Amino acid sequence: MCRHAVSRRDFLGQLVLGPAGASLLERASHRAAWAQTMTPGAPTDLFEIRSAAEGVYFAFARPQAVTNCNAAIFVNSADVLVVDAHSKPSAAAALIAQIRKQITPKPVRYLVDTHFHWDHSQGNAGYRDAFGKDLKIIASEATKKLEAQFTAARLRESLDPHGHPFPSQPHVPALLEVARQQLSTATRPEEKAQLEERIRQLESFSREMQNFEPVLPTVTFDTAYVIRDKAHDLHVEFHGRAHTAGDVVVFCPQKRVVATGDMVLGTLPFLADSYPKEWPRTIDSVAKLDFDYVAGGHGDLQHGRQRMMSQRNYIEELTERVEAGKRAGRPLSEIQKSMTPASIQALRADGYGELVRAGRDEAAMQAAVNTNIEHVFRRLAES
Ligand SMILES: [Zn+2]
Questions:
Q1: Pick from 98, 68, 55: which is nearest to 234 by CA?
Q2: C-alpha to C-alpha distance for 64 and 362, rounded to whole angstroms
Q3: Confidence (pTM)
Q4: How far is the CA of 120 from the centre of ligand 1 (A)?
Q5: pLDDT in tens, 150-175
Q6: 253 — phi, psi (to 5°)?
Q7: 2 CA to middle of ligand 1, Å?
Q8: What per-residue confidence (pLDDT) applies to 329?
């Protein structure tokens, strides 16, 4: 792609999305990933299912115009537990079909919302529609409250042409506008096909979610909810505040797998609803569980603790430096300027920087880190 096309797109991003333009720049770096999925002849399944241990599967969400989270799938003796529910009921239905086809005909009896975010809970209705009153939707009490408070309101903003979507939530009309503008000047047939597919996905999300009503968790708990099954035990546990006020993990001691939602994931963490001073300690507590595999809400399946500790250290370092800057009375923009990705130790250690860079160039990486810094800056005042 020529330079002109990139700067034009970023200009459009600023124009249409205003202050959210930076996240468009970030999205542009994932362009190659979704382009790959949207190539004619590419697999149409929304998820790539991999085995993590006996009876435990990792459903890796393929890139889409509107993100889906990954899911962890635990096959019990007579039923199934799924961790996290994606961005829309039809994505949940797609995964249910894949589970039946590729894993087991057993019904999903338990669904866990690791936290309240749209891309992990808006698919609850898809599971309820498929499995009715036998389905238990499990979450922390805090997550249920946050879903009741924010899911519908934030979705409205993300679908309203004049809305102000919460960071990380797509502003669908603006994204459509950008994609249509790009299509009007695209010349290569391959690029045109990709943009047409992107527009199709955005329009279909918009249509599906127009009259959406959230389905809330049906079972809540304070610290732990344990399912003892002949196949294995499943511990749904709250270890403290982290990515949100209500994150839970699902730990299977026999299969040595922990599903962590976005508390521990294979991409840069997202901090806009987070508790940055508590998050590292919460990860320390989860790290004490006896597991080999970490199934995070985005990015790849992780082996061991190295990546989770890198992420922990990144959040801690970022928070300490932002806090010091704030104490010295420095404004956000100055703190951002002083914190280049190269200056952040945690990004240089153990290949963590390369992992979370995900194809971003230097400017996009700085923009992504700036977003993290901004969210920490705000959350230090709020939480
Ligand atoms: Zn997520």
A1: 55
A2: 24
A3: 0.88
A4: 6
A5: 999 999 999 999 999 999 899 999 99
A6: -65, -40
A7: 32
A8: 96
